[in-house]
UniProtKB/TrEMBL annotation, chain A:
Residues 70-145 form a coiled coil. It is a single-pass membrane protein. This is ATP synthase subunit b. It is found in: Cell membrane; Endomembrane system. Pfam families: ATP-synt_B (PF00430). GO terms for cellular component: endomembrane system; plasma membrane; proton-transporting ATP synthase complex. PANTHER family: ATP SYNTHASE SUBUNIT B, ATP SYNTHASE SUBUNIT B', CHLOROPLASTIC. It comes from Taibaiella chishuiensis. The chain crosses the membrane at residues 29-51.
From TrEMBL, chain B:
Residues 379-393 have a biased composition (Polar residues). SUPFAM superfamilies: F1F0 ATP synthase subunit A. NCBIfam families: ATP_synt_6_or_A. This is ATP synthase subunit a. It comes from Taibaiella chishuiensis.
Amino acid sequence: MRPTQRAEGAINTYKNQLLKLHNYFSMDLLIPDFGLFFWTLLAFLLVLFILKKFAWKPIVNMLQERETGIANSIAAAEKVKEEMKQMQAQNETLLIQAREERTAMLKEAKETKDKMINEAKDQAKVEANRIMDDTRAQIERQKNAALTEVKNEIGKLAVEVAEKILRKQLASQEAQTDYVKMLADEIKLN
Amino acid sequence: MCPKLCFEFKTRTFAQNFSVVLIKCKQVFAALFFVLAGFSASASEGHEHESGEKKGFNASEVIFGHIGDNHDWHLFDLNGHPVSIPLPVIIYHPEKGLSVFSSKNFEHGHASYEGYRLNEKNKVVSEDGAAIKDLSITKNVASMLISVVLLLLIMISVANKYKKNGVMKAPSGFQNALEPVIMFVRDEVAKPNLGHKYMRYMPLLLTVFFFIWINNLLGLLPGGANFTGNIAVTGALSLISFIVIIFSGNKHFWGHLFNPPGVPLGIKFLLVPIEIISLFIKPIALMIRLFANILAGHIIILSVVSMIFIFGALSKFAGWGFVPVSLAFSVFMFFLELLVAAIQAFIFTNLTAVFIGQAVEEAHHHDHEHEKYHAHNPETGQEYNVSDNTIVA
C-alpha cells in the first residue's frame, strides 16, 4: 500500500468512527436512564439532608460567628485605643494643670513668706519701739521718784540736822543768826 | 523483531493498555505518562493475540465503553478476558417483582440469568419482553456512592473540627482548604443573588457545588465513571433546582409570570407562554450545560489518546510518532478538565442561586414602575434601578 492510500484509509476509519459517534449521540446519550436518575436523586437528597444537619449548619454558623467575633474584637480594640488616646490626652492636661498649680503654689508660698516676714518685722519694730518708750517712761518715772525720794531724804536729814544743831546751839542770838546765815548760804550753794 | 517495540493495536490490547494505566495511577495528570509505560508492558502480550482475528482499533467502542454506563466496573483485560468488578443488578419486573443478583451472572453479556440478559447496548432486558425497571447499582451509581461517602467523610470531619476548635481558632488542614471554597459559595454565589435570604439556601448551594465538583474530579480519575456527563444525573440535579425554584417563588414572582403588570393585553397572550416556557428552559439549560461540558471533556481526552492507536493501526511508526502530540494534547486537556470540573460546579450552583434569587425577589418600592431593569455595580455593591424606557432609548 502506498502512503497516500494508507492515509486515506486512516481518514476513512476516522470518518466511520465519527459517524458511529454521531449515531450514538443521537440515540442513547440523550435518553436519561431511569435507574441512574432514581439513585442520583435519592443519594443527592440524602447527602443534602445529612450534610445540612451535620456539616453545613455548624460550618456556616461557625464562620458567621467567627466573623462577628473578629469584627467585635477589632471594634473593641479600636475602642480601647480610642480610650487610651483620650486618657493620654487627659493625663497630659492633668500634668499641665498640675505644673501650673505647682508654679502658682510656689509663687503664693513665696508671697506669703515675704508678707509674713515683713509683718513680723513691722510688728517687731512696733514692739521694740513700744518697749523702748515704756522703758524710757519707766526710767523717767523711776528717776523722778528717786529724785523726790532723795529730796525728801535730804529734806528730812536737813531737818534732823537742823533740829540737832538747833537744840544745841540756838541758845544764843549770835549763834542763831550765824547758823541761819550759814544755812541760807548752804541752800544757795545748792 | 524486538518484542519491546512490536505491538499490535487491537481493541483488547488497547483496552488492556489503557485500563491498566488508568487503574494504576492515582493522580489525574500522571495518567498520560503511564500510557507510555503501558505500551512497553503490553508489547509482549501483543504477540499472544497476533494469532487471533485481525481487527482494527475501534475508537468509538472504547470511547462509548467509557462514557456510557455499565453493569460492571471494567478494570482491564487479562489474556483476552475482561477483568472487572461485578456490581449488583436490581430489576423490578411488573409480574415477577424485584430480583437482585450480581452482574457477573451475565458473563459480560454472554449469558442470561433469571430471564434477563444484556442487550448489545449493555442494558438489561427481560427475555419475555416485559417493561422492566432497572434500578441496578451501575458503574455510575457505584462511583456516585463513593463520592457520597467521600463527601460525607470530608464535610462531617471538617464540621467536627470547627466544633472542636471553637470559633476563634484559625482553621488548619483540610478545614483550611475547604473554608475559602465555602466562603466563596457564600460570598460570591449566595449573597449577591439571594440577598438577606441567603442562609436558607446555603445548604442546598453548598451540597450542589461540592457534589458536582467531587463527581467531576472522580470522573477525571483514571478508570473513573462518566457520572456528571450523564444526562440522567444532570437531569436529577436540575430537577431538584427546579423544585426549589418553584417552591421558593413568592407572590411577586408568580404575579409577574402569569400577569405581567404594565403590559397591554394582546402582548400578555404572547408574553405569558414565553415566560412559562422560560421557567422550564432554565433547569433544562442547567441539565444540558453540565452534561455536555463534562461529556465533551471526556470524549476529547479519550479521542486524543485514541489517535495514537488509530495511527498505530496503520503503522507502528505513525503510532509512536503521534505519541508526543497526543500526550501533549491530553495533558493539556486534563488540566483544562480540572478547571472545567470546578467551573461547571460553580456555574451550576451560581445559576441555581440566580434562578432562586429571581423567584424570591421582593416587589420594588415603586409599584407603578414595575418593569425595571436591575443593574448591579460589582465594585460598590450598589444597586440602582434603570427604567425600561432608558434602556430602549
